[in-house]
Design a protein that fits this description.
single chain; nine-stranded mixed β-sheet; alpha+beta; binds zinc ion
Length: 903
Amino acid sequence: MGKNELAALFSSNPDRYYKVSLFDKMGFARRKCGKCEKFFWTLDSKRQFCPDHENYSFIGKPPTNKHLDYVNAWKETDKFFRANDHTIVTRYPVVCRWREDLYFTIASIVDFQRVVGNQIVFELPANPLVVPQMCLRFNDIENVGLSGRHYTGFCMIGQTCNADAEGGYWKDRCIDLDYGMLTKGLGIKPEEITFVEDVWMGAGAFGYSLEYFVRGLELGNAVFTEFEGNENDYRVMPNKIIDMGAGLERFSWITMGTPTSYDCCFGPVVDKLRDITGTDSSNDLLAKYFEAVSSKLDRTTSVRDLRSLIAKEIKIDEEKLARLVAPHEAIYTVADHVRTLLFAISDGALPSNVGGGYNLRVILRRALSILERLGWKNVRVEDIADMHIDYLKQMYPELEEHRQDVRTILQLEAGRYASSRERMNSVATSLKTSKKGELSVDDLIRLYESDGITPDFLVEQGVIPSVPQTFYTKLAELHTSLVAGQAAKPIRGLEGLPPTKLLYYEDETMREFHAKVLKVIEGKYVVLDQTAFYPRGGGQEPDTGEIGDAKVVEVTKQADIVIHKIEGRITEGQNVHATVNARRRDLITKHHTATHVLNSASRNTLGSWVWQNSAFKEESYGRLDITHHSALAKEEVQKIEHAANRVIRENHPVVVKTYDRGDAEQEFTFRIYQGGVVPTSNVRIVNIKGWDIEACGGTHVKSTGEIGLVKIVKSERIQDGVVRLEFVAGEAAVNYMQKLDGQLATIAQALGSSREKVIESFNKSMEEAEAAKKKVRTMLRVVTGPIAKDISERAKKLASGIHMYSTYDEELEEDYHIAVGEKAIELDKHLIYLALVSKGEGIRVIVFAGEAARKKVKAGVIAKQVSAKLGGSGGGDDRFGQGGGRSKDRIKEALLLAEEAAK
Ligand SMILES: [Zn+2]
Ligand SMILES: [Zn+2]
């Protein structure tokens, strides 16, 4: 059943699905749209069409006397729903840490969706509730700032209710409330409101919905998710969900009636930016233009097409109009992009070239290049973020806490952009001469991906006339599809087995146990009734040991069942005695607990954007990948190490406790999901008292002192936005230090020195080596004169007048040939000097051409041809060329080729 069939099904029985008590009470009549045949409910007896076909008619004349800016529109909403027994829930992060399939929170309902097994379940922290949820979407970037109503970040007011739980209600009360919000809260007259019938389909669930419109503007959509299942087999859900989502930006706009919604939703930011940039907004045409765009833009036309239409309508030259509106569009766009970045960075995301960070860098670079294009050097993105915080903190006080972090990240990224400008300029210049006007959207995407060049920048440089409509959307699409989880190949034959009793959780110190063999599959996969063997998972390597006489080589968990892969013989039904390799487990446990300690040490040292990206722990070392914007300085690594070892010395207790997931999220925030999402309704919380709290299923020491010591052995920026720390803990750390100490002793001995004086001795040896090199260079200078003279005499005198000297050398280095060749063409202006020098696996090509010789043949050309012959590449200028190749069997041919070219 598609959406249309479903709509037909629901619309065929409006009394059952769509008619709510309000419609009867107030006398709303049901009509069929004369254009699209959708059904809608209205008090207006003249209305023939649904609001989809209607231009906005509230601009300049809002349908209410209440005029609410953004924050006040929220305060009004908050007040109304609070008075009607709703809990107002603090917004969730815009970075969606609780869903593996989403980078960002894209709708208010996402806050309450959790994946358990393969199913999405709803978990509401209160019932009913309202949340002012900031949502990020990057699928309409082109229209942002231009259309009057598109945003990359917007607030969705979520009114959510579990109909069948305590405090729950269903559609009658929902629509009563939404109607009340519009009429009492916003002061809109009842006859202005139209409800349109629609349907909603999700994975495994569906329902019907009522969208509500005022003067052509959709304000909200109340979805009633009543059924689960599919077209042929569905039933009423035991916990029916109301998901009403309304745009706060629209609530404000409908009451203000400003030409664009940006004018009322960014508080004082737009006016401040106009002041700073000296942008004049007094021209009447501006309001006229934006009003026309806002009200006429439908889903099919582009803003640009619309602009030429409007230009004709208001009788102004199209280019002149574009010039007039450009600075205003720029202000709207930049204000939007910076607001989105503010929320994302506050919630721990970093602009980068991968994952969700990609979209953040795209919009940041877009904002920066817009500022640059308009020559607004005195406008800084971090200052715009400050303006947003000053305004929004009334509604979102948590933004204040991250003011400094946001500034740090924005400044750093702006600096990176500026420093890449030089390279961008040279690329733009070469594009301008070679490919002007021939760049496709794909070309532009390649340019952005490889050189960070935004199309806005190319417009500014005059390489392309305008940014293609689809560029940003296409770019965002490329980076929104997520990698599907790579499931290990499942082992078959586990049906009917009970869940394994997990002794490694009941008693983490257990290293020996008795168990019954429930099943042996293919002679090597063993399932016991209970086990102390920790299976591979969460980046922790599995235990090894023995079951009976058999060796355990791998342990995995499939759903509730632990599977031991063995080498040896075990029979079903047998009672066995098993031993876990204690030393291995202890070391893994220490490395594992050390990742928790290091993760918080990194965040406290570097900044709040540090999250665990992934981790790996085995017997001999551990690895922690953290999100951070730059490679670490030596001092930073040392600081992290010091903080971690202090926590170890202070011997903090490590307490493990299982919580209801919702409770844990509320009590400890989403920080608990350092190791990723937990797909169960209970979470195991590992609390290193006073230091670190995470949800984790691994094995841990009882107190940090047991780790003994942690030493970071390596830090490396492994990808944009991710730094890897490799470390050793406990005994492994002591072994590591001893090994280093031993190496140092060996070096000292070789230098004839002691460990204490090894650096001094090393420096002395280096100086000696440098002095020897210098001597060789001096000698070379002395002898090049006579050698060059000899070469000139020995060179082949060709008919062309060129003196050709070529050689293949397996002994002397290229320094020698450069010195000699240079001198030789000075002495003999007709000389071409070609040397092929053996170097490792390959051949270096060096060519010099004297002043007279180069009139006939260029050094660079010979270098190119000869290198090509040798299977490589080369080039250069008239006087000097170089290159190389690897085909040593073609040396003779290469030399002949050069002579041929000089003939
Ligand atoms: Zn219609
Ligand atoms: Zn852990």
